[in-house]
Amino acid sequence: MARRLAEVGPAGQGETVLIVDDEPSVRMLVTEVLEDLGYTAIEAADSVAGLKVLQSDVRIDLLVTDVGLPGGMNGRQMADAGRERRPDLKVLFITAYAENAVLGSGHLHPGMQVLTKPFVLETLASRIKDLIAET
């Protein structure tokens, strides 16, 4: 994995990414990709914990979240609530095809993208870099 990710190249300059997913293996995988790219990762297992981080003063340059989350709100609702405090928050939704309907395809705000599972790590890495680099 590291060899192929190296082709995407490190990019981090102190940026912090919040990963919200109820699957520990997914959080671990995304964290590994982020660290390989030079970003700092913060993990949350549900929408309540994720929103708590988004409403704090912690620097967050990108939110990577599953759409289907426990905790009372889905990933889209959590992202929208987080954007009330952080209007420029960039978001990458990771979703299974069926969950795509929750996002209301075509109704994503600027700075939001969707990555459908399963995905290759290089695609994840380049999407993360592109979103963080977007101004």
TrEMBL record:
Q: Which residues does this entry mark as bearing 4-aspartylphosphate? A: D66
Give start and end of each Response regulatory domain.
16-132
The record's SUPFAM superfamilies line, in alphabetical order, gives: CheY-like
**One GO-annotated biological process of the protein:** phosphorelay signal transduction system
Any keyword Transcription regulation? no
Q: Which Gene3D superfamilies match?
A: 3.40.50.2300
Q: Which UniProt keywords apply?
A: Phosphoprotein
Could you tell me which SMART domains the record lists for this protein?
A: REC
Protein's UniProt name: Blue-light-activated protein
